[in-house]
Amino acid sequence: MQAPGLDQENLLNFMNTALVMVNHQLSIVYVNQAGEALFETGSKHLLGHALVDFFMAGSIEASRLKAAMRRGEDFTENELELRFRDERVVMADLTVTNVYYDNATHLLFELRRIDQQSRISRENLQNAQHFAARELIRGLAHEIKNPLGGIRGAAQLLEKELPNEALREFTQMIVEQSDRLRNLVDRLLGPNALPKLKWSNLHQALEKVRALMKMDTEHAITIVRDYDPSIPEVHIDQEMIQQAVLNIVKNSVQALTDAHITGPEIKLITRVGRQLTIQGKRHPLVARIHIIDNGPGIPSTIRDTLFYPMVSSKQNGSGLGLSIAQTLINHHGGRIDVDSRHGHTEFTLFLPIVRKELTHE
Ligand SMILES: Nc1ncnc2c1ncn2[C@@H]1O[C@H](COP(=O)(O)OP(=O)(O)OP(=O)(O)O)[C@@H](O)[C@H]1O
Ligand SMILES: [Mg+2]
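# magnesium ion complex -> structure
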């Protein structure tokens, strides 16, 4: 029985498994939507092109495929590392089946990404870390702020009773240092206010960051913009998103400058993404902001705790930039991903796009 309105083509496009079929010349003759997503390009650029051309040597070998076809052998490979020409690396389970179709032998590729599963557990871990760190800080902040208020108050009282004006220097010092500590605790606690959501143009926020950054850097860092004009207005707190992006961009600027990279470059890219699960919630539509630099990459020693507050590789860094950025993006129901290697550090912000008619404004 077939559900009304559901033809097989539709069904193949609903699948999470990437399906790609090639003819005897190994040219692509069919690709479903998951396949397009895997190759990060549309069927127009895939159909009629040689499959192996999309991969680096050693990933998908033409000789092996031809042999499989000649001998009519099917094969499966688990945890295969697919290295794309654009240097992307995707882990996938692969099954290749010989199919006889249209009077000729073809190969059908079924590719299931396995990084999705590990990404979800990484996301859970990242959230758990973030949550644990915030709880710890909240508890500590409370314990520090109360006695601190007492110390400050006592110093002020003491000041009034001082027999000698010259001694004020010391009570002032107590007050100043208490204020400094209080300030630090407040910054550690991070932004606490809920976002004031307004319909906004995401690119406007990015352009503000770009302008701020240009003023801030005397170094000639090239900024490449590649915005997707089809992104609809998003329901965000523009200042918060600006702050999150700025914290990430600032890190890039610092990394590029400190490492004296020749031809330093930061790319700001926006795209629309589809069907993405964030914190267990599936969103049909999300906005993606990619912030990419060609710097030295994130030191491996801090990669796993990157979003913890006070994790920093810099002498004067407070290690709060990314922790704050994550809090801000979490407030929007979004997520931050990181991918970093030498010469390529990429932070991706995902923000759910809600449809205007579903909100009450
Ligand atoms: N684009 C990047 N390239 C290389 N390393 C990075 C990049 N972004 C972040 N990092 C690393 O992550 C660490 C944490 O960044 P975070 O913004 O949280 O703190 P910080 O920059 O050290 O201090 P703060 O932002 O509070 O001034 C940095 O110290 C740096 O080592
Ligand atoms: Mg920073």
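# post-check
The chain has nine helices and twelve strands.
Residues 247, 250-251, 321 surround magnesium ion (ligand 2) (CB under 6 Å).
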